Amino acid sequence: MLTELFRSRFDVDITLRDAALDAENRPTRRMIANAAIGMHVEDAYYSTRELREAVRWVHEGVPAGKLKLAAILANNGADDFQRCLYFCLAGRGVVGMLDDLEWLEDLLERRGRVAGEQKRLKASLMPLTNPYVADAPDGPLVTMDGGFEQGPSWWADPTLSA
Asked: How confident is the model at residue 159 (pLDDT cuts 50, 70, 90)?
């Protein structure tokens, strides 16, 4: 009976809620975990992955990286999720940013696998409440300029020399 009650309205955001409250997690990780709560399972994962890939390309000097990151941040056809993640992590050092995005990507991948298994079992999920009140960005956008100047958080990150 108790197991059936547990499965009847499974909360796929439980790991994100736990991560957001875990005092052992860095503040940036708690922030981005909170930002992902309520996001559609696939949208959250693929948006995080796309952002992480763009940041990695910029860090590795891939020529298309800066343009890809600028395109993500300037996209006015999507919600503000990717910008929210980026600006939670911006300026903290590129290594930490990539580490936190990979951490969130892993959490969201596992969240997706659990959601898929629950769907396969025909179990109902607790409804996800979209945290964004608008389908379009709210406020000014970053310009679509791949020639932006990289500040010290991209090259003076103390963890790069370690």
From this structure: low
